[in-house]
Amino acid sequence: MKILLTGANGYIGMRLLPQLLQQGHDVVCAVRDEKRFSIDGETRKRIQVIEIDFLEDIKENTVPKDIDAAYYLIHSMTSSIGDFDEKEAQAAKRFNTLLKETNVRQVIYLSGIVNNEKLSKHLSSRKNVEEILYQGAFHLTVLRAGIIVGSGSSSFEIIRDLCEKLPLMITPKWVLTKTQPIAIRDVINFLTGVLGNEKTFDQSFDIGGPNVLTYKDMLKQYAKVRGFKNWIVTVPVMTPKLSSYWLYFVTSTSYKLAVNLVDSMKMEVVAKDDILQQLLHIKTHTYQEAISMAFRKIEQNLVVSSWKDSIASGQIKNDLEKYIQVPKYGVLKDEQKMKVEDSERAIANIWKIGGENGWYYGNWLWKIRGFLDKLNGGVGLRRGRTHPDRIYPGDALDFWRVLLADKKKRRLLLFAEMRLPGEAWLEFRIDDDNVLHQVATFRPRGLKGRLYWYSILPFHYFIFGGMIRNIAKH
Questions:
Q1: For 266-399, where are the alpha helices, taking DSSP H only?
Q2: What share of the chain is helix, strand, coil (3-state, %, to 5)?
Q3: Whole-model pTM?
Q4: Contact 192, 282 (CB under 8 A)
């Protein structure tokens, strides 16, 4: 089958793509920006990539007319607190309009379980998108899931941060809300299982794992799988705003996502039945099995995708392209260069920068800077990096965003997503003479920006000087 995969660069899309290819399908991937589509060269040869931003007006329809099915995996909960529901509705309407000109027979939409009459804004938006898609000129299959557990998923990473960092937790009362977590592997099995299955046409199905748990149970069971104990005290006085700040400061989530998550966590999310599970003969994994499988992927460095790499997790709003040209005028710079004896080793060191590996010099200073950024409403250092030695354009790298990562040209360019009175770039490049160039560029915003640069100049002498020495000689 020829399949249109929207949201192909997202957490679910990156997991679904290899399964579709393995099953022999011809896949057309729709992404906002092809340059930040984090896939290897061999996979890129096997697919067709088209650029479509469903959140903007679409001038030209580039969707092939001969597609047989499509996956709708578009959502914008992480990008906004106020108007994400309006954006999601507009995106669904644009999707319907584009697909009118194709031969598509089935559309598969991953939504959220709906149990309450009074829904959170997030779940209400998902339900509204479902109703819009049902108006399309195709057969719709809706899969409604609750908490998705897998390496790199936002739910898993938040639980991981909470449990690993806080042996004693003072938690709001929403931790007693019931939910039905499902392993990412099971979600993918359901998504591929309904493809082309006429018994699932024009229907909505709840999908979930075998365990109905409270969020407190999930935290407790996570600790059990990891082999330690945690203590959880529930208090009734923590407001939604305080809860959002609590998640934001303790975990790697953005504040926007924290607000929307807290809003949804007050709603019970439990599957009504297991009709689809019986129809497709899928045996789902327990919550503890899902946690164990996630850590096997992490330990083997096989994490395919992470929510942290989404553009919405940082400060860049959309197009990375406009930041790639580093400005030359009206900027302040710290330039370092050093001859390297082994350029391949130096490139390997550069490609491992950040995350658990650190920044090669003064890591405690980088951590302080990350903490201050978090206090100021920024992303901080907690995003880390998805893979220890692979980098793609668009990836998150602590409080930086990868703009360009070209091993053949031996160049890595990062853009700062921390809160700054200006804009900052950090570039690593090895020239033909095996000289490593390390350039920090800052374009200040007014007097405040210049005062900021000169106030931290003494630290630059040690940090940047030590960093290039260790990259070159490590």
A1: 275-280, 287-299, 321-324, 343-351, 363-375
A2: 40, 20, 40
A3: 0.74
A4: no
